[in-house]
Amino acid sequence: MEQNWKNPPVGMSTSRLKAGLASRPRPDWRNPLHLLAFGLGSGGLPRAPGTAGTLVAVPLYGLLLPLGSTAYVFVVLAMFLFGIWLCGRVSRDLGVHDHSGIVWDEWVGFLITMAWAPSGWLWLTAGFVLFRLFDIWKPWPIGWLDRRVGGGLGIMLDDVLAGVYGLIVMQAAAGFGPMP
Fold first, then answer.
1. Which domain holds residue 96?
2. Cβ atoms 96, 25 nearer than 8 A
3. What is the pLDDT of residues 67-112, one digit of tens each?
4. Which partner for 113 in 57, 82, 131, 146 could form a disulfide, CB atoms 3.0-4.6 Å apart?
5. What is residue 24's predicted lDDT score, i.e. its pLDDT?
6. 107-153: per-residue pLDDT in tens?
7. How far is Cα of residue 142 from the mean position of the Cα atoms in its chain?
């Protein structure tokens, strides 16, 4: 995918953007672990990989809904535990802690936000926006933990907590309604 160097992000020079992208380690797309950690490729986008990765989690959420709440929770828990290993492994492969393209953690965080959410596009959109806001903003203790916990657990933990914050707001707004 060709980068449009004429329109760098606000406050960033074209040369700085090129240098940043050139120095960012690239995943090996033939490696299935890299492909999973990078959200089936969505994390490879040069801009907003976390948002792109969360978008890819939306259809995954739709696939998990028919499981019911107990199975949903167990699948998300399994994804979290697997994600600790996966994100740590891919991070080591790339030689970078918490590479911005690793978005498996966004998948898990978004799925946590959406647990027991009422059905409908409004709720889906609200969950998406809330998760992304908490993930970007990193209110206490998310930012504090993000700076202090390393490895795969550190990569996963900030997004899990952002997901929990999103879940709390969603459930408060929904009146603690049942999962569809």
1. 28-174
2. yes
3. 999 999 999 999 999 999 999 999 999 998 889 999 999 999 999 9
4. 131
5. 77
6. 999 999 999 999 999 999 999 999 999 999 999 998 899 889 999 99
7. 14
Query: Residue 8 domain-assigned?
Result: no
How many other CB atoms sit within 10 Å of the CB of residue 141?
Answer: 12
Burial of 110 (0-12, 13-18, 19+ CB in 10 A): buried
Q: What is the pTM assigned to this prediction?
A: 0.84
* Pairwise CA distance, residues 97 & 106, whole Å: 15
Q: Which two tokens stand for residue 112?
A: 């946590």
Q: What does each C-alpha distance from 117 to 21, 177, 180 come to in angstroms?
A: 37, 7, 7
- The answer to whether position 121 is within a domain reads yes
Q: Is residue 180 part of a domain?
A: no
DSSP string across 48-68: -HHHHHHHHHHHHHHHHGGG-
**Helices 69-94 + 151-174 axis angle, to 10:** 150
- Angle at the Cα of 41 (from 73 to 130), degrees rounded to 5? 45
